[in-house]
Amino acid sequence: MSLTRSATPGPGLTAEARPTAPVRRRGRRFDPLPYLLVAPVAIFIVGLALIPAVFTVVQSFFKVNPLDPPTRFTGLGNFRALLADDAVIGSLGNTAFYVVVGVTLSTVLGIAMAVLLQRPFRGRSLVIAVLILPWALPGVVEGILWTGIFDPNAGLINSIVTQVGQIFGTGAGGTTLLLGQNRLLTISLIELVQVWQITPLSVLLILAALQLIPGELYEAAEIDGCTRWGAFRRITLPLARPGIAVCMVQAVIATLNVFDQPYVLNGAAATGSSITMQTYFISFQDLDFGQGYALSLMITVVTLIISLVVVRTIYRRVEL
Amino acid sequence: MITRTSRRALLAGAAGAAAFALTLSACGGSSSGGSASGGSSQTSGVTITVALASDPPPKAALDEFTKETGIKVNWVNIDWDSLQTKISAAATAKTYFADATDVDWSRVGQLGKLGWFYPMETMVDTKTMASDMPQLTSFTKDGHVVGIPYDASFMVTTVNEKMFQKAGVTEMPKTIDDYTAALNKVKSAGVVKYPLNIPFAAAEGLSTYWYETTGAFGGTVLDGAGKPQFTTPDSAGYKAATWMVDAIKNGLVPPGNINVTDSQGSQTLMAKGQVASIFSDYSGGIGTLYNIKSASSVVDQVKYIPTPGVTGTAANLGNPDGIGIPKQAKYPQAAAKFIEWFTSAKKQEDFAGLNGQDKIFQGYALPSHLSVLQKMSESGTLPEGKSLVPMLQGSKPVFPEGAPAWYPQFSNAVYTNLHAAATGSMTVDAAIKTIADTANRLASGS
């Protein structure tokens, strides 16, 4: 049984009978329709993503600051300045935490929730619809929503955190632990909000992968005496790896580019600022576009490297 | 399921998303963008776009303007932060985004140096305006007027008189020492657990609070050359920072205020009776918030008091909003006509409700014309007007020589470090030193 579309001919098919023959004939005569259909999207992507991206790469090696004209070549000057900037280094640390915790939690929770939703039950569609709500909400709206929950003077979670702080006697300056005071707690709470947002998409991606696993495999495993845990480890997880890889890549992109949640929940404070917040401050507050380009380039390279590692490590080709 | 081709597609997707990250700041161009685009001088039969962080004025008012001038107005309400980003992005890329837009007092130095806006003295009669608009000086840089103030925002001290009286404070404090003593009395009397609101969130509101407090301690933050004036322990800025941080450490300010912004503090603390005073509050807050029954539980309890200073009343510092014309405007002359109309004394009377309820501009703070403020005070339509008028008359700009071009970076250093000092992660001394180092570095141009 194969759920993939194979390009190789099936057994018994001769080379003459290959279904690719008609395609070759069509290839001789130019058909503009596919190109016309793709053209609007291609123009959109080239114009709004690729050209600015190339422009950014080039400009990251220039001093581009309208307050300090003219634009001039600086080589690696922008990168050196960024790596010597305490605010950038601090936000890199925060962002690393967001990525590690966010990707891990959203993947683990995504797998757990997808497995729970794998089998049909009454109200399953409703549960999935409700589940997707946090993902559908804009980040700023979520930030405002959680600001109320974390409200330092009246928020529910903050009250609990405050009580914990009082019990353990922690907190700087004799006050209790609060969002914005203790760095680890602050970035943990900010990431909790982001995990709440990105996990639904992880659930859906993994659930889609799980739906493709034939039920016969589980039946056969049961007949062979395999436990549920064994079936999960030997059937579910291996066959869901492509879906898990996709979910992890989207989580890497989301967490590396987190902006709304730390900005709305914790302002510009160093205790929670992310690397994309620094890009914003450097570009649009300081108007140092050269450094902004350089930082954007660094984020892009890191995103690609981590995504590559995730795909190489997690992804496995699956044919059923 | 997913084939090898799909793996490539997955990586391509990641690359695509990364490419979008690259475009984050790619909208910037490479030159200062100080030249005009040569917009049309047409002033009739055109539609101009006005982008401000505000709801539009009443439709009838805009229709009236169209009838008078033949200029249609497309009003775009964009939040303040996004608006600043759009102004920078559009000006740097030399692209049009609005014919008239926000000029915040804090960006006057930057915008003046960059030449992104038309000098307003060439577009409207600013000399005549100046006599009735005390805050026009806040919008002047190197002899050029970057924008025209359309409201008269300035920082004031508000107290909940009922709470103060309940604690036995019958005479309003006139000096900063009296004020501190009064707050301690309110706390010790148990009237309210935390009597003072200071918005310690790392945001602009914390910076302006410090400027106002520095003024009360008898000094300024920067001199005309942009050099810091707050480095020694006996300087006003140093004392102000110490006073603010001590206030949270000593329990005058709610501990949770390390994450409270200025507007949150007014809306959820002062308006709800959770605190008894804000040293640096919004002017006009009594009429637009504290006396509004649906939003406040302290109606008729809050008063403005003359800002307590070292030996007596200190000046109020202004932080008004202005409106100007970007160099890439399509119809700069039409935009100038709109600004002239929008900031005129007659129209501000309408917006403030002096000529009937139907003409009120909802959310409009205080008129920038002193004469309109006086009329409001005399007619009784401005709560606490008798206190506000002399405050506006005596108000001063935060930076007498104009905000420096690098103000946004300086302010970022102020609010992030004062926030850190309030959380206890650094000392006031270290915070002040870091802020001063930032100011010195920026002023030297390095």
What does this structure look like?
The complex is a heterodimer of chains A (320) and B (446). Chain A is mainly alpha-helical. Chain A has a single domain (79-314), classed as MetI-like fold (Orthogonal Bundle). Chain A is 69% helix and 1% strand. Chain A has 14 helices and two strands; from the N terminus they run ααββαααααααααααα. Chain A has helices at 21-28, 33-59, 77-83, 86-118, 124-131, 133-136, 139-149, 156-168, 183-211, 215-223, 228-256, 260-266, 275-285, 289-314, and strands spanning 62-63, 72-73. The longest helix of chain A has 33 residues, at 86-118. Chain A is globular, with a radius of gyration of 25 Å. The model of chain A is unreliable at 1-21 and 170-175 (pLDDT under 50). By secondary structure, chain B is of the alpha/beta class. Chain B folds into two domains: 46-153 and 320-397, D-Maltodextrin-Binding Protein, domain 2, CATH 3.40.190.10; 155-315 and 406-443, D-Maltodextrin-Binding Protein, domain 2 (3-Layer(aba) Sandwich). The longest helix of chain B has 19 residues, at 4-22. Chain B starts with a helix and ends with a helix. The model of chain B is unreliable at 1-5, 15-21 and 23-33 (pLDDT under 50). At the A-B interface, α2, α11, α13 and α14 of A face α1, α3, α4 and α16 of B.
In the predicted model, the low-confidence regions of chain A spanning at least 5 consecutive residues are 1-21, 170-175
Shape of chain A: globular
CATH fold assignment of chain A:
MetI-like fold
Q: How much beta of chain A, percentage-wise?
A: under 5%
Q: What does the radius of gyration of chain A come to?
A: 25 Å
Task: Please provide the ordered H/E string of secondary-structure elements of chain B.
Answer: HEHEHEHHEEEEHHEHHHEHEEEHHHHEHH
Give the overall pLDDT of chain B as a whole number: 89
Any idea of the CATH class of chain A? Mainly Alpha
* Lateral strand order in the biggest sheet of chain A: 1-2
* Topology, number of strands of chain B: 13
Cα distance spanning the termini of chain B = 56 Å
Strand order of the largest sheet of chain B: 2-1-3-12-6
State which percent range the strand residues of chain B make up.
5-15%
Largest interface: A-B, 85 and 66 residues
Residue share in helices of chain A?
55-70%
- The CATH H-level superfamily of the largest domain in chain B is Periplasmic binding protein-like II
Overall 3D shape of chain B: globular
Pfam family, one (chain B): SBP_bac_1
Keywords (chain B): Signal, Sugar transport, Transport
Protein name (chain B): Multiple sugar transport system substrate-binding protein
Organism (chain B): Microlunatus kandeliicorticis
